[in-house]
Amino acid sequence: MDVLVLSRWQFAITTIYHFFLVPLTLGLSILVAIFESRYVATGDETYKAMAKFWGRVFLINFAAGVVTGIVQ
User: 28-65: per-residue pLDDT in tens?
Assistant: First the structure.
């Protein structure tokens, strides 16, 4: 394979990952906001733990989306 074919493959793969990561990031941001709001409204520690867990997933997903967006 020459460089042109490899660069096209790289672009295709990063574009596909970016295509899936962006909507997932948007959905996770809403989910974390809902959990945080429910925690503040009810004081239930379960919502705090859920927001903390999904917040970490959100940060990892956001970072991966930034990387795939820059490489693209």
Answer: 999 999 999 999 999 999 999 999 999 999 999 999 99
29 three-class SS = helix
- Rounded Cα gap, residues 62 and 65, in angstroms: 5
Sequence-ordered list of residues with C-beta below 8 angstroms from that of 15, at least 6 positions apart, any chain: 68, 72
Residues 30, 4 contacting (CB under 8 angstroms): no
Q: What is the DSSP string of 30-60?
A: HHHHHHHHHHHHH--HHHHHHHHHHHHHHHH
- Whole-model pTM? 0.80
